[in-house]
Amino acid sequence: MSDWRDAPLRVAVPAISPLLGTAADPALRPFAVCQKGQVAMTPAELSTGIKAAARSIGFDLVGIASATAPPGFSRLQEWLARGFAGEMHYLPRRAAAYAHPRHVLEGANSVVMVAVNYRTGDPAEVSGPNQGRIARYAAGSADYHDVLKERLRKLADWLHAQRPGCRTRGVVDTAPLLERDFAQLAGLGWFGKNTMLIHKQAGSYLFLGALLTDVELEPDAPHATSHCGTCTRCLDACPTHAFPQPYVLDARKCIAYLTIELRGVIPAELRSGLGDWLFGCDVCQDVCPWNRKAVRATDAAFQPSADLAPADARTLLLLSEREFRERFAHSPLARPGWIGLRRNAAIVLGNRGDAAAVPALITALNDPSPIVRGAAAWALGALGGPSATAALEDRRQQETDAQVLEELEAALQRAASCASADVSRG
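Structure (tokenized):
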């Protein structure tokens, strides 16, 4: 991931942006450009104008908050102190920067919060023996970071055209900004008990972005009411029990963290909870009543790809590094890396319980990565059978990695237990 400081800082652009009033971007033509001799818009007029521009550019929701200390900063500090960030070391490393937007843009006065709905039609059911699920946000052909950054650049161009010489910075998920806090402050929704931002009409399947600027805009009223009531469906449905209490997520147990952010070995006690999730997880959002009523997204950038909704876990497990780079270089699935995605695939195949996956898992037992070898061993132990047991025994004679040896021993014991259970039932 590139450093957030590398994001483009926009200053002193020409009074008329090349993106405005051109055939290339006809959607922006209705918005006036402040040229020499014209009277500048008031903060209220500018705020109305930038919202209209944001919607024309392709944002579904837009609101404005003052660039102030976010109310959730103390909660972030407490969350980090409890160790809930797991191995996401970049969070505590830059924790102090989350205290105020000025650490992202010096002199920031306003934060324009935008959101894009990615709640497309429901993906096909996972039915095949080797199939697994990809979180909705990653199942399309585009990386949402790229899509939102490009739209934020256009929005920044609009603002620079109205306020030549102003300063802006677009943020999508990578800067030390509590985006959900500012979305709530900008009136876009409330925090659900699963910690997601929820909007009454759009639900919680939302990509958030922010445009920070030194221009003083008229802020919207914060969203002051929660509409979750006594509902606890999101908390109850979590397969790995990642919510120690409402509104608090222990990332170390979250399937999204385990399959994306965690670079090492997934703890054995959490593997069965992954079920068929290859990348990310949507369970706590799928069960939310507000998402049942949410409008469906029509944005072409986020429509699911046929080979990812669902995906074939056996195919992913056997991908070469070159094939992985070619297929996922511009996809969120690049995040866990070649090793991480294949680790996930091995675990999913073990959870799916189909013996047809045994040959692919035996191949993975000889993978260069000990992380993949260990996951394949665990899956073969879960599947059991003579072929799996023989392969595990053979690998045990060759293995030199201590952690993989532990996985092999545990897998052989598990396979033996499965065989004994089969005999007893017979």
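The first helix runs from residue 43 to 57. The beta strands are 9-10, 61-66, 110-117, 131-134, 168-171, 190-191, 197-198, 206-213, 277-279, 311-312.
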